[in-house]
Each structure stands twice: as structure tokens, then as C-alpha cells.
Write a structure and sequence with these properties.
Residues 216-378 form the FAD/NAD(P)-binding domain. Residues 7-93 form the NADH:ubiquinone oxidoreductase 30kDa subunit domain. GO terms for molecular function: iron-sulfur cluster binding; NADH dehydrogenase (ubiquinone) activity; oxidoreductase activity. This protein is an alpha/beta fold. The protein has 3 domains: 4-122, Beta Polymerase, domain 2, CATH 3.30.460.80; 129-205 and 401-422 and 434-459, no CATH class; 217-388, FAD/NAD(P)-binding domain, CATH 3.50.50.60. Helices cover 33% and strands 18% of the residues. The protein contains 18 helices and 19 strands. It has helices at residues 9-21, 75-86, 129-133, 140-148, 152-160, 166-172, 176-180, 192-202, 225-236, 253-256, 265-276, 291-296, 325-330, 363-366, 371-388, 411-415, 431-434, 443-450; strands at 4-6, 25-34, 37-45, 52-60, 64-66, 89-91, 100-104, 107-111, 124-125, 217-221, 240-244, 281-283, 301-304, 317-318, 335-338, 341-344, 358-360, 369-370, 458-459. The strands form 7 sheets. The chain has a 5-stranded parallel β-sheet with strand order 12-11-10-13-17. A 4-stranded mixed β-sheet has the order 1-4-3-2, with helices on one face. A hairpin with a 2-residue loop joins strand 7 (100-104) and strand 8. The chain is elongated, with a radius of gyration of 28 Å. The protein starts with a strand and ends with a strand.
């Protein structure tokens, strides 16, 4: 044959990747039973023309051959035939482990006539870029997929495993996950924040019962996102939690610093109310000036989570406590400067301050931060306090979620470009009437948006 070349088993898949990048198409393969071994000839078509290229791979009788299906999914068909006829084994075949071979949204599943006589490797969950970038560790790929399947109840349950405020975050989160999305390189990153908002608006979630009482009482000073998050998770773990807020209403900068058109107070009140309904006691108009008094009153641990409420910028960015060294000294807390801001000194791992049984979380420990970072800090503080008091981090069982298929679409279907869904615009001059600056996605739009996910968290 013309245009032949010899290839080794080690270079087969890398060379095929280069071939595919250059536009080459895999056509088929031929196997020959040679003396003492086998020869497999791979046939490629270049540039959709009559120009062909043929690769010869010689192997011993018992050698295992790398599968080309990770590059050309259809290669598994001929590899299956070669395996059947010659007993040659292929490794790392990218078969759909659920049994379907080629799946599109417009056609039924097609199944292999001769299934392989071995178990293909099961799908593996990876830490996708969007998941890695989330300070709170929300399982973003999973709830995005569930939204794509219209499973809004399950999507909301996934979010609640990590954060107590999906409705708030669906409006004011800085969404670093969207910038981390691989599709953002084409300015078509998944609308992750809006999917979170839609899951909150359309999903139904029932809180699991808290764990049995630990007998511990915990005081939290400040009812911003960090303090309320810590209260939520500590209560779930069976602790008696009391939140002290110096202002007339709870919410901290969420209430006093973010415009209502950006975060409707009905959403804020509903999500804070859910925490209060979970058994957390909240005392407003209660200023705390002495931490030792709280310990003397029988609290086993105290979490400091207050911040400033003036000069707060939009989009959920918090103005950090700055210039309040006297306040920190009066409370007996060591302070330090970070980027020009005075913050409480804490242990980086445990968030414990210099005072026994006193912890701190939120913007008072980090400087200028975001709502999602404050929430993440609050959960970390809750877990540290739980461990400090001798408890374990066994979260109450969440509602059962539907089993999810981890198989990807075909390579070709995944690479097909799909435009990001654009939420409807608020009519000019109608923001006050509508009540919000953004309208969010419709359920139909959310399903389309969720289906755009490339499944970066799955390796098959």
C-alpha cells in the first residue's frame, strides 16, 4: 500500500490525536495473523479526499493494544470485531458503560451486537475546574446536569449539601466558577449562578432532621453570611446555637449593603427564616461587648462573625472591618494588618483566635471578601468548633437523589457549539416595578443551559 508508516504501541494514541487535530478521519483497521504475532493496519482518510494513510502496528501474540476509541469513539466497533476474531485485547476502550454506543438527542440508543467479554472501566468523577474554583466546594457539575434534566428538586438538594443560601447566591455570588468554565474561553461559559437561582425558585427542598443533641451551646456574634452559615451547620450537627445581632434586623451586609433590586428582601427573609426554623435562636438589638460574659453564661464556644455595613460594594463584595483596632483590643482579640485592613488573627486551619474557646470567621478574618467566601468561612468555622468540642462531622442524611448517568455524550455531540442562554431583559425604567434588576432563566432555558455542560468532571 502507498503512504504506509510503522507505528509503535506507545505512539499509537498520541499520533492518532495529532491526526485528529489535523482533520484526519479514522476509517477502519485490518488485522493479520503473522508468524509469532499479529499485525494491525489502521487506515485514515486525510482532508475528506482520496488521500489515505496506513499505519502498521506489529505485536506479539499476548500483547495488549491501546484502544483508539479515546480519540475516535467509533474505533471500538472494529476493535471489538478484531478482538472477537483474533483474541487480541484492547485496553482503555471508551465504551459507554451503560451499554449505549452512540447516543444523540434525536436518535435512540444503538447497542453493540457483540458486547465485549470483559467489564469496561467505570466512569470516574474528576474535580472539574468550576468545582475547584468554588470557595464553598459546591458540586457544581452535578447540579448543572440535574438542571439540564429538569430535576430542580435534586439540584437544590445538591446545593444545600454545601451552602444554606441558594436563593441569595443565585443573585449576588461573584461566580468565579463561571470564569473557570472551559467554555468561557469562547465567552460561552455555563450560566452557573442563574441555574442556582432557578433551582431555588423551582425546586423543593425539605431540611433533614438535625442529629441528636450534643448538649453543647454555641454563641455566634453577628448575623451576616458567615455567622448564619455557621449557625446553620452547627445546628444540623445537633448543637444549640444562639446568634446575637446588634442591629434591629438580621442579615448584616446582605440587608444593609446590597440594594433590594439586586437582592430582594423577600428572598433574604425567607432563607434567614429557614435557619431560624431549624432551631437557631436569634437575638437582635443585642450588642456583645464582652466575650468572657458569654462563656460565663454557659456557652461552650463563641464565634465572632461581625463586620462593617457601610461602603459595601455591589455584586456581593463585602467591605471588611478596617480601623477598628480599639474594638478588637476591647474584646481581647489579637489583630493584624492585611492589605491595609485590620483583621482578627486566627489559626489558618482551625480559625481559632488567641482566646480560649473563641473562634472567628468571615470578613473580619480575611479583609475584603465576597458573600460566597464568607459562607465558606462560616462552614469551616462550624466544622472546627464541632471538632474542638469533641464532636464528629457526620452530616444528617440528605434526601435521596436520583441516580445519575455518568456517561458522556458522543465526542461529536459534546463538541457541537451551543450558545449560552440569555435571560430576558427588564424593560427600561421598569426595575422598581419588577423589583429586580435581573429576571433569571425560565425552566426551559435552564434545561437547555444545563445540557451545554461538557462533563469535565467525568472520565470514561
Amino acid at each position: 500500500m502507498n503512504n504506509e508508516r510503522v507505528v509503535t504501541a506507545e505512539r499509537l494514541v498520541p499520533n492518532a490525536s495529532v491526526m485528529r487535530s489535523a482533520g484526519g478521519m479514522f476509517c477502519t483497521a485490518t488485522a493479520i495473523d503473522a508468524d509469532g504475532g499479529f499485525e494491525i493496519i489502521y487506515h485514515f482518510n486525510l482532508d475528506n479526499s482520496q488521500h489515505m494513510e496506513h499505519w502498521r502496528l506489529k505485536i506479539a501474540k499476548n500483547d495488549t493494544v491501546p484502544s483508539l476509541s479515546s480519540v475516535y469513539l467509533c474505533a471500538s466497533l472494529i476493535e471489538n470485531e478484531i478482538s472477537e476474531l483474533f483474541g487480541i485485547k484492547f485496553e482503555n476502550q471508551s465504551l459507554d458503560y451503560l451499554g449505549g454506543m452512540m447516543v444523540t438527542k434525536d436518535s435512540p440508543k444503538t447497542y453493540l451486537v457483540k458486547p465485549p467479554d470483559y467489564q469496561p472501566r467505570k466512569a470516574i468523577r474528576l474535580n472539574a475546574p468550576c468545582h475547584q474554583s468554588c470557595p464553598a466546594g459546591i458540586d457544581i457539575p452535578r447540579y448543572v446536569r440535574l438542571c439540564g434534566e429538569g430535576e430542580f428538586d435534586a439540584a437544590l438538594a445538591v446545593i444545600h449539601q454545601s451552602v444554606p443560601f441558594p436563593g441569595i447566591l443565585g443573585r449576588v455570588c461573584l461566580a468565579s466558577c463561571e470564569a473557570a468554565c472551559r467554555q468561557d474561553k469562547q465567552n460561552e461559559g455555563i450560566s452557573i449562578k442563574l441555574l442556582k437561582r432557578l433551582a431555588y425558585e423551582r425546586g423543593h427542598y425539605v431540611e433533614p432532621s438535625p442529629l441528636p443533641s450534643t448538649g453543647h451551646r454555641i454563641a455566634i456574634v453577628g448575623s451576616g453570611p458567615a455567622g448564619l452559615t455557621a449557625a446553620y451547620f452547627l445546628a444540623r450537627l445537633g448543637n444549640a446555637v444562639t446568634v446575637f445581632e446588634a442591629l434591629p434586623e438580621t442579615g448584616g451586609h446582605l440587608r444593609y449593603g446590597i440594594p433590594e433590586t439586586e437582592l430582594p428582601r423577600s428572598i433574604l427573609d425567607a432563607e434567614i427564616g429557614a435557619i431560624a426554623g431549624f432551631g437557631v435562636k436569634i437575638e437582635t438589638n443585642h450588642r456583645v461587648d464582652n466575650l468572657e460574659n458569654l462563656l460565663d453564661e454557659g456557652f461552650d464556644a463563641v464565634l465572632i462573625a461581625f463586620g462593617a455595613h457601610q461602603g459595601i460594594r455591589k455584586s456581593g463584595v463585602i467591605a471588611a472591618v478596617s480601623g477598628k483596632v480599639d474594638l478588637l483590643k476591647r474584646l481581647g482579640l489579637e489583630a493584624e494588618q492585611r492589605d491595609g485592613h485590620n483583621i482578627v488573627s486566627v489559626d489558618k486551619e482551625t480559625l481559632k483566635t488567641n482566646k480560649d474557646r473563641i473562634f472567628a470567621a468571615g470578613d473580619i478574618t480575611m479583609g475584603p471578601t465576597s458573600v460566597i467566601e464568607a459562607i465558606a468561612s462560616g462552614r469551616r468555622a462550624a466544622e472546627s468548633i464541632q471538632k474542638f468540642l469533641g464532636g464528629t462531622i457526620d452530616w444528617p442524611e440528605t434526601p435521596p437523589l436520583p441516580a445519575e448517568a455518568l456517561s458522556r455524550d458522543t465526542i461529536f455531540d459534546r463538541r457541537e457549539p451551543r450558545k449560552r442562554q440569555q435571560q430576558p431583559n427588564v424593560p427600561f425604567g421598569k426595575v422598581d416595578e419588577v423589583g429586580e434588576e435581573e429576571l433569571g432563566l425560565t425552566p426551559e432555558m435552564a434545561i437547555k443551559e444545563g445540557r451545554r455542560c461538557w462533563r469535565c468532571d467525568v472520565e470514561v
